[in-house]
């Protein structure tokens, strides 16, 4: 498996989200926006149902989501930030009657099936190519993008390690996709 990169440019992230909104495919927009804002693996994103993220009794999105990670079997609790909720709200408003058991990112083929990992990769890669993102992109790029921008905003690596459920910091450091430009920025910042 080839290593994929995060999307390092915030402008390119905005371009990507605007492109998907402009294309009128709210499901694809919501998939990318949700992935960028939750740092979940694509397998966990695709397994989400509406009852996982929406409280039908209160008629509102949950503040926190609880899942069991498919890859690790570990429990994970994460906050739905405003951008994730906004994307999900757009998707819910566009969808016809949503049931709790419905998959959030539903395939157009078959009855209540999530899109496949292959389709998710296709959506992400094609959209990134359309807006000129040249890095090696895959589904994990969304997760890595969250980590990269968190790190750039000063979130300590041990916190990111916990967020990603990594067993050691070296894995987390690989995720961050630190480039020579990032290293150069340190030299520009620290002029003694």
Automatic annotation (TrEMBL):
A GO biological process held by the record: DNA integration
Keywords: DNA recombination, Plasmid
Top-rank lineage group of the source organism: Bacteria
Annotated GO MF terms: DNA binding
InterPro entries listed in its UniProt record: DNA_brk_join_enz (IPR011010), Integrase-like_cat_sf (IPR013762), Integrase_catalytic (IPR002104), Tyrosine_recombinase_XerCD (IPR050090)
Annotated Pfam families: Phage_integrase
Entries under Gene3D superfamilies matching the protein: Intergrase catalytic core (1.10.443.10)
Name of the protein this chain belongs to: Tyrosine recombinase XerD
Gene that encodes the chain: xerD_5
